[in-house]
Predict the structure.
Amino acid sequence: MYIKYIKSEPPSDGFGNSNANDGRLLSSSPGAGTGGTATGNNKPAPGPPEEQQTLLAVLQFLKKSKLAESAEILRREAGLPEDALDPKGTDASGSGPGLAAGSGQVDGVDASSLLSRVTVSSSAAAQAPKKDSSLAACFYSLSASPDQPDVSVVLSAYSQQGDPSLYDAYYSGLKRFIESVLDCHRAELSQLFYPLFVHMYLELVYNNNESVAKAFFEKFSGDQECYYEQDLRILSSLTKKEHMKGNETLLDFRTSKFVLRISRDSYQLLKRHLQERQNNQIWNIIQEHLYIDIFDGMPRSKSQIDAMSGSLAGEARREANKAKVFYGLLKEPEIELPLDDEDEEAENEEGKPKKKKPKKDSMGSKSKKQDPNAPLQTRIPLPELKDSDKLDKIMYMKESTKRIRLGSDNLPSICFYTFLNAYQGLTAVDVTDDSSLIAGGFADSTVRVWSVTPKKLRKVKSAADLNLIDKESDDVLERIMDEKTASELKILYGHSGPVYGISFSPDRNYLLSSSEDGTIRLWSLQTFTCLVGYKGHNYPVWDTQFSPYGYYFVSGGHDRVARLWATDHYQPLRIFAGHLADITCTRFHPNSNYVATGSSDRTIRLWDVLNGNCVRIFTGHKGPIHALAFSPNGKFLASGATDGRVLLWDIGHGLMVGELKGHTDTIYSLRFSRDGEILASGSMDNTVRLWDAMKAFDDLETDDFTAATGHIHLQDNSQELLLGTYMTKSTPVLHLHFTRRNLLLAAGAYNP
Amino acid sequence: MAEERRQKQCSVVLPTESMKAMAESVGVGQLQEDSCVALSEEVSYRIKEIAQDALKFMHHGKRRKLTTSDIDNALKLKNVEPLYGFQSQEFIPFRFASGGGRELHFYEEKEVDLSDIINTPLPRVPLDVSLKASKEQQKTESTEPLKVVKPGQEEKGTIQGKGQSTTTPDGKGKEKGLIRLKPRSTHELSVEQQLYYKEITEACVGSCEAKRAEALQSIATDPGLYQMLPRFSTFISEGVRVNVVQNNLALLIYLMRMVKALMDNPTLYLEKYLHELIPAVVTCIVSKQLCLRPDVDNHWALRDFAARLMAQSCKTFSTTTNNIQSRVTKTLTKSLFDDKTQWTTRYGCIAGLAELGADVIKTLILPRLTVEGARIKAVMEGPVVSNIDKIGAEHVQTLLLKHCASVIAKIRPQPDNVEQYRAEYGYLGPMLCSHVVKARTQATLQAQQVNRTTLTITQPRPTLSVSQSGLTGSGGPRTPSIIKVPSSLTLMSPRPGTPSQPSPPATKYIVMGTSAGAASTQQVITLSSSQSASPVTSTVPSATSTLQPLVKLESGGTPGLTASRPLQKYIVVSLPSSASSSLEPKSSVLPTSISSASLDGGIKLERSESPGVSTQSPH
């Protein structure tokens, strides 16, 4: 259904006519200043014939609008021959034979009918212009390359297009209209308020109508949804054209189109209204700055819309979540199971018969089953297992046999690690998978590693001493350790700013830390020294995490990109760009093929490690996202944000499937229990809450969510799913971790 | 609200005066007004921008407070040199000054003499970051708070957790914990609490009645005892266990008084400790032997007292889930119906049941009257068996008459015919009849003043005493001090004229003398602090029915009297004006002169943690 070859903004189907008139009407004001017009052109050098066609259509339109001068400029710019326009122009000035077909347009007499050729019938209007802003920009700075929109170009889209004093009237007119429509449409159309408000305000500011802008803001800012308050606050401080340069929030708004999802009926209603009113100011904004994703079906309810909106740039486009995601788990490598041997050794001592065979068979058949949703084992290269890894896997299996089965009637015990005397300086915590080490990142740039088992932390001996030891002895691994350095705590110095993210490698040999100083450091837990400093982010790095298979790690920071690194490369392997604001947290999918990033733009994106594509965009949070957790089976993602809500996402379908309300402050940590039955969330509000994840996901499967329209009806069952709330006295919960036996560990710094 | 706030945010800009002041400070004199306005708007915008960035750092620093370092980091983001000199300040102590219509905030910087700093000894190094683990056993109650810190450590609030955990009912028996990591009672007490506990327990079982009264008073009123509750509970249950075996009546009484005091404390929630307390109380009701000499010691009073405690706890704590009342009733009924049950236990069962109310009497005791009557008759009129049995039978008879008469009076229509009674209730019939008649007349005559028969202690023997009789007193009439505490206050009988005793203000006592059950007069005795003064006695009209005797003392009048009726009963009502009242009516003999050594030894045997602490007053 989607048109792949849109090159310029079509004043589409039924609305085309009036827009064309507008163009003529409006051309007087900008034309005086710059000699440009309201509509625009694409690339200076026409490439494929389609583009040329389009250009010709535009030229013809200009000509028809008696803007010969502009047409001439465009023609020269496009490098078209002088006579290129003539024969075609006469052609098109007819009734647009064949070109208007299917566009449902009655009076396809003028050039807009020509343009409508590039839209394919029904979903035409949904095909929001992609290069529109740069198009408009062309008329102001034709020299600037539209492929690299710089700030001035982007901003220049806010050219004076109407009488500033009328903005108020426009907006209230639309408001009156939306308030008067049927209830079922009102909720959907209300989505328009916020982006229109922002763009109109920015336009006013850009055109130096400071007082009008202020009045406009004060009059209508109260109407906006409360979850936009943060952005409105930023907006409110912006009152001058000069401020707009370098304001990131503003650039976000400009460089990306605000995405709205509206049902066809509601859209038609809106279009008709604007058409009747000749309200081209608003229509221009919609055309230029908004992307309206039209779907067929029932209009959504207010609650459905509220669930999905709130992000900086509106909802995710539906096609953004269409890509196939291999969310299944990788096959576990087959390991000879000395687990059985050891057990049997013990059993054999008691004279019991061997039962190794049947056990092995059952294990084997299990691992042979290939998950259809799993990626190929070799989709991305993974490090080979070392002997020590195998030993660890064996330990893991052993432990998991002793794992406690959790459920709504069998909640985990919680062990809380309190950091004392941290003086508000604890910024990050991580625990190793086997729960033997705990590390804290601090605002004083240190990283501290504690051993929470009786086994103390020891350094490897110095090189000179290592030469002395007998390398053939059996306990060589023991001998290389320097007994004199044994202590419970080791401090790692190296960063020059607060450490915001830390992560242990799965084999417990390394530790990663990311800091405000823009670097990520890799530390050895054998020598307790820094091995590598990865430079790439020039701004604070908010989070970093090792892949579950080691070797790779991901980082994200203030520079809005997430980077995928390998420990033996000093430059990133992948750069995941697309977020509109800081990346606040990063998580690897259990199968290591995907990376999830949460951002201050209130979206979550899922990236494919293989090709760096963004395969999922999840919107719905109303604040910066600070916690992410994949379910152990890889199917679901949980996210927590400053709004205190936990949202659950189905990765395969790309849908929100649950909302857990209860926390009253930022959620800093989320963790699924080892079997995925319980979701634990820890928050700044000094509580740990346990949620019935099984129930949340089970209920879902019986639901007939309409994947086609990309939205579901969420039931408000947070209270049923909440299994327990555990308060600390005054310790924000920064980290949660389920041990292999399903004991819940929590950590945080006591906050006197 | 939000809207208003937003509007405010929109309009807040730095005043132009600030611009002028700043310009002057860098040497720019005459600044145009327009420039000031432009500057202030620009500066305000930039400040807001930086503040918004600083917020990011605060969020990532997992803090709620914005610090100066956040601002520094935000400045660094913008490639601006941070402001040095503001680090490590928890807050910036801006001072405010106004005058002449100008308001000013300034940062107070004192001039410090460098040598002062150099010469002062270094302050203590701040504590380094450390890690503490504390586990929380999973309970079913979701309100159970997570205890973050070991007791005595930096989080003082953890004790609160204990208090809260006791507020959640039905915690017992429903724990579905996986591993019991930490038993409930291991919460350590602070040193002060340990001292207090030691003092209280020693005073409660010690020899000094004054201290005991104070201690009990403290238990009954102190709002901060919840941490010690498990220990008290264990103390009582263990104490009863040991002292029942040793037949130490006095100690059992003291322990029951502790139970009473605990129950009276409105801030304590005993639900979680009933599993320890109720068996102890029931033991004191039905145990076969509670004292060394069952023929002379008044263990009956203890049974009565314990029975009343039992009734009270049933009333307070019995729920549909724990079924305390029905379980207790079942237990008591079972042993009551057992033929082999001894008289002492039988007495306890009846007392326990009778205290549970008229309905219980009606359904469980009245049908038994014939059987019990026959049993009593067998002892009374049959061949002389043991003296102890006879005493027991007498007590049971009195008890039955006392409790049943009022109930029968209510449920049975007049007239009361002796023969009918005999036919219906057997041996006890005639006596019942007279009691019922008496009850009826009392009810009609004194509609207001209810002669609460349940409160009287029949005192047939003149030699009743709590003491273990190690004392060979003067041989004179000793004042028995079986003290009943039905409501809220305890009474003590201090050593008279003890100089160390704080002189309490005059206390009023109403002494109701009854003779053979007939209510006669009431006297108000005003006692001054000086015990030597003779009590001022005045007769007052009987009080209202709500009169709750706090203490009842009965003095066996004549030692030689063997009659089964007490000569005189005194109901002493104390209206104390101070917490610790002292009283010793009519007698100046120390009532409980128990050898303290033996007692303390008995208690200390099981409480190793209270070795030889000086018995000082806890206050």
